[in-house]
Structures are given as structure tokens and as C-alpha cells.
Amino acid sequence: MQIEQRHLTREGVQCAYQKLLDGGRFMIQRCGGCVVSVFFPRELCPRCGGTHLEWIEPAGLGTVYSVTCVRRNAELGGDYNVSIIELDEGVRMMSRVESIPATNVKIGLRVQAHVVVNGGRGLVLFTPVPGAEGVQ
Ligand SMILES: [Zn+2]
Question: DSSP state, 97?
């Protein structure tokens, strides 16, 4: 019973995250104990084990930490990138940088998050910060 309950609660945190996202809000967690930012959403702080994780709205600014350009035929939508973005809050997340060619997404590029809601499902995507290196 104990295990089942914990499983339900964990689902609850990720559900809450997705629900916020579906409503157009990108939120991460912050530990009330050691003040570290936490992502992906969880129940326990990975640093101190604290259980008081609160939702905070990140500034949405980050830096490309790593990037992979996935080649795809133009008729299937063309190349796209899969990037790991490190938010200024210190957490990393997998996403995609849009609005510039996939091959122009470089490590260190400054990016800004935005939420796209498609068919009721929210998704965090990034675009280069205006004036960032390589962006005209
Ligand atoms: Zn903590």
C-alpha cells in the first residue's frame, strides 16, 4: 500500500507540471530547504532529500549545453535539433531550438523558452535571444 501511494504521488507531481504547461505556464521546482532548483519535477529534493518543493516560474533564459542535429528529408519537415538547455536557474532540460536552421544551433547559444500548446498539450521550446551569436 505504501508503495502504491508513493507511486500515485509521484505521478501527481508530473501531472501537475504537465497541467501547468497545458495551461501555457512553464514552471520548475525549488527546494524550500536548500534553495536548489529542481527539474524534472519530483517529490524529493535530489540534493538534500527535502520534501518542500515549491513551484517557481523560471526566467526562461538559458544556454545550449549540447545539441544534436537530426537529419530529415525536406518533405518530412527537414532537419531539426535536439538540444539540452541549461536554464539560468541551473537545471537542464531536453528541448528544441526553433526559428533558426537546425545546423546553426551551437553550444553556448543564449536562448529563451516559450510554451507551445498544441492540441491541448503544452511543450517548452526555445528560440535564440535576439542579438545572440549567429542570429541576424
Ligand atoms: Zn534541497
Answer: B
pLDDT in tens, 45-85: 999 999 999 999 999 999 999 999 999 999 998 999 999 99
Q: How far is the CA of 73 from the centre of ligand 1 (A)?
A: 45
pLDDT exceeds 70 at position 3: no
Residue 111's closest CA among 64, 67, 58? 64
Reference 31, options 52, 56, 9; nearest CA is: 52
* Ligand 1 centre distance from Cα of residue 136 (Å): 41
Alpha-carbon separation of residue 78 from 27, 102, 127 (angstroms) = 30, 9, 17
Domain boundaries, the chain: 2-56, 61-128
% pLDDT > 70, the chain: 89
Q: Classify domain 61-128 at the CATH class level.
A: mainly beta
